[in-house]
Design brief:
Structural class: alpha/beta
Shape: globular
Strand order of the largest sheet: 5-4-1-6-7-8-9
Strand content: 15-25%
Helix content: 40-55%
Length: about 475
């Protein structure tokens, strides 16, 4: 058992840095952002902390090789101590794409077309063995890096088995698991084979504390435990809820840099003077419901012809999981529907849908600032930070059309216009209502939304979990 080592550890599939190999063999590094990066920085430089993550590609694997399998160079990681795991590429692909993204994600977001899927066959079982091996690699690395009695915060559905595995290796540790996705209700969760469902639950119950973004997802988890494992939480695991809010300070500063101003000017020119804008910013992820959002916009133009030539739908749909055929097909469908709307309704001076498929953070912030209406209509979402970010950086105030299936609904519903994400006609009417809100009412709603959105910044979200785990 380790007697020296880190006192705080974070484990996640994706780490705070990624690498590429240039033509000359030089390694290039790029630091990422997000709630975990902000949160971990809040513990201060005096705390001995290590982040354990997976190598995601050839550049990452080369960086691990050059680091001798140990901690990455501090100059690449912004001073954070990061251990990146070079898990066999085939094992990683089976665990990440085969299980995490093609099974667990679909279960928790309730996205299966059940007449045909899922089919849990021998291939699924083979991939499940890879998922176990992937989780075991994390548990082993955490056990090696953790000091006596350290606090370990394990993140998300990729690592549902790791808490129990780590508990067996290091019973002295304080272990937390946090789920960033929704959690499926028992009837849907039990689509999984009974032994796999039980293994997932007991994996997370290896933690001292299992936490979720909303009370709804936490209650669904405990309901699944009772349905699959029997009454009570057998391990005595504490269940917590920690909502994640927008990082207001970072967003407001970043949204007023010169590159954002340039993109705002370009967007205003594309939209056209005097027109309203309906903005959405998403990864092209199946759960984000982009196609039904476009269909609702088309319904708006059909049912309320007064909006023709007076509104533009600015839709940013950034690529996601394009190594999976289903996601590539979905991206194609998003493109097809947008082009259909433009063909049907467009005029020489008006393009109804401005669709951008290439990721550009500065352009996203520009769209946030000028949006009259923000459309956030996921089928199901653990939280959805876009719903919180847009009101925070909006220049003139924004009306939020929000799915009741987003975790953010729990905090923002009072001042949003809420919709059933499957109801295209209802969403079209919600867009009409949002567009017709008087400016003072829109600004007042936006102010309340921004206040709620920033109540739980990433630093507080992280430190609250750490305090609760240590307590």
């Amino acid at each position: 058992m380790a007697t020296q080592g880190a006192e705080v550890l974070v484990a996640s599939n994706r780490g705070p840095v990624s690498y590429t190999v240039g033509p000359d063999g030089e390694l290039g590094s790029r630091r990422g952002g997000g709630g975990l990066v902000s949160g971990l920085s809040a513990i201060g430089p005096d705390t001995d902390a290590v982040w354990v993550c997976a190598a995601l590609g050839d550049g990452d694997r080369e960086a691990v090789r050059r680091a001798g399998g140990g901690l990455l160079p501090a100059e690449d990681t912004g001073g954070q101590r990061v251990r990146m795991l070079d898990i066999d590429a085939d094992v990683y692909a089976d665990a990440y794409n085969g299980i995490a993204n093609s099974a667990l994600w679909f279960v928790h977001h309730m996205m299966y077309q059940t007449p045909l899927e899922p089919v849990f066959d021998a291939e699924f079982r083979r991939q499940w063995d890879a998922y176990r091996a992937y989780n075991q690699a994390f548990a082993q690395a955490l056990a090696e890096e953790a000091g006596q009695g350290a606090a370990v915060l394990i993140q998300d559905y990729h690592l549902a088995l790791a808490p129990r595995m780590l508990r067996k290796l290091r019973p002295d540790l304080r272990i937390g698991h946090f789920s960033h996705t929704p959690w499926a209700p028992p009837d849907y969760f039990r689509l999984l084979p009974d032994d796999i469902a039980a293994e997932l639950l007991t994996g997370i119950l290896g933690a001292d504390r299992a936490a979720f973004l909303t009370r709804r997802w936490a209650d669904a988890f405990t309901d699944c435990c009772h349905a699959v494992l029997g009454p009570g939480i057998p391990s005595g695991t504490e269940i917590g809820v920690h909502g994640l809010g927008a990082d207001a300070e970072f967003l407001r500063e970043r949204a007023h840099r010169a590159d954002v101003d340039e993109r705002m000017a370009a967007l205003r020119e594309q939209i056209g003077e005097g027109r309203r804008s309906i903005v959405r910013v998403d990864r092209t992820e199946l759960s984000k419901n982009i196609v039904r959002g476009l269909l609702a916009y088309r319904r708006l133009l059909e049912d309320h012809p007064e909006w023709r030539e007076r509104v533009v739908h600015v839709a940013f749909a950034y690529p996601s999981r394009q190594d999976l055929a289903l996601y590539r097909s979905y991206m194609d469908e998003v493109r097809r529907v947008a082009e259909e709307i433009n063909s049907e309704y467009g005029t020489p001076g008006w393009t109804p849908v401005l669709l951008h498929l290439d990721d550009d953070f500065a352009r996203s912030l520009a769209a946030y600032r000028l949006a009259d209406v923000a459309l956030v209509n996921p089928i199901r979402d653990g939280m959805n930070l876009v719903a919180k970010e847009v009101p925070v950086v909006s220049d003139e105030g924004v009306a939020l059309v929000l799915s009741r299936e987003a975790g953010a609904y729990e905090e923002l519903a009072e001042h949003a216009i809420t919709v059933n994400p499957y109801d295209v006609v209802g969403t079209a009417e919600a867009l009409h209502e949002a567009l017709t809100l008087p400016d003072p009412a829109r600004a007042e709603r936006s102010k309340h939304l921004a206040s709620a959105a920033t109540a739980l910044p990433p630093t507080k979200w992280f430190l609250d979990q750490l305090t609760a785990l240590r307590g």
